[in-house]
Design brief:
The chain has 155 residues and is α+β, with helices and mostly antiparallel strands. Helix content is 39%, strand content 30%.
Length: 155
């Protein structure tokens, strides 16, 4: 995506990234987790803490200088990736995902993995369209928080 730059986050990036995470959760996760659950997660501070707790592995995507998405990854695993909800389906997520896959290859990983909620049909479709394969799915006993694990060969 032209004009998109991805780099390690600075401390000044934390607040804008936390805002993107809160807004993205409200607009997307409420669909499958429910508005009350998502609001509780955000209001408890857990959403913000997820970003600050993983600052050392946080990378931001800037489009024309403005933060429009982010990824947290380490050791061949994508922990969290979000794009400003206003830019979904604009190519930002694909660019971040491809950048992350390239970084993992450079770091010597031959396989990447990630998880998303089973109820997150939008994310599942996105990962499948980008060549990822579902390798595991939690059973019904996990309830609303069941996760699907995806993997992709990097060789």
């Amino acid at each position: 995506m032209e004009g998109l730059r991805i780099s390690r986050a600075t401390t000044g990036d934390i607040a804008p990234v936390q805002e993107i995470a809160r807004e993205t959760l409200r607009k997307t996760a409420s669909v499958f987790l429910g508005e009350e659950t998502v609001a509780g997660f955000i209001e408890s501070g857990q959403s913000d803490a997820e970003i600050s707790d993983h600052f050392s592995n946080l990378y931001v995507a800037r489009l024309n200088g403005r933060i429009v998405g982010f990824v947290i990854y380490w050791e061949g695993s994508i922990h969290l990736m979000m794009v400003d909800a206003k830019l979904h389906r604009a190519g930002v997520g694909t660019a971040i995902l491809q950048w992350c896959e390239t970084q993992m290859r450079v770091e010597g990983h031959d396989r990447a993995q990630l998880q998303t909620f089973v109820g997150n049909a939008q994310a599942i479709g996105f990962y499948l369209r980008n060549g990822w394969t579902e390798s595991h799915r939690d059973g019904p006993e996990a309830g609303d928080f069941a996760k699907a694990t995806f993997a992709k060969s990097l060789t």
